[in-house]
Amino acid sequence: MGVSCFTSAVLRVGQAGRMEPSPSVLLHLCTADVWRSAQSAADLRPESLADVGFVHLSTPEQVHLPANRLYAGHTDVVLLHVDPTRLDSPVRWEPGVTTDPESMVFPHLYGPLPTGAVIGMTPYRPGPDGLFTPLQDLM
pTM score > 0.90 for this model? Predict the structure, then answer.
């Protein structure tokens, strides 16, 4: 499944009456080895789940931002395509880091990522400079 499977997000009313994105696909970044290991388990529990209480997810439009923060120069990164309707735990849309564009919010999964919610995987390679480009540039 390639990046062309992504569709645009619709908005839904979330907590406190705010409009929140409701994309048809979310993405989780990890290495190919981590994904291979997780496939034999019921769920994926990255370090962030224990450290901050949630699993980092992204939309296709924003995934390059955390990819560059966490994996710049890595050539073994994959994008796990996650169907949000298959998630068992709540997803909250919250700010990322101060260097992200103002008002940008990221989906955070407050529980493990069920491997059954992963509907596809795409290798995500950096450019010659070691940086990841936005997915729309790859389409």
Answer: no
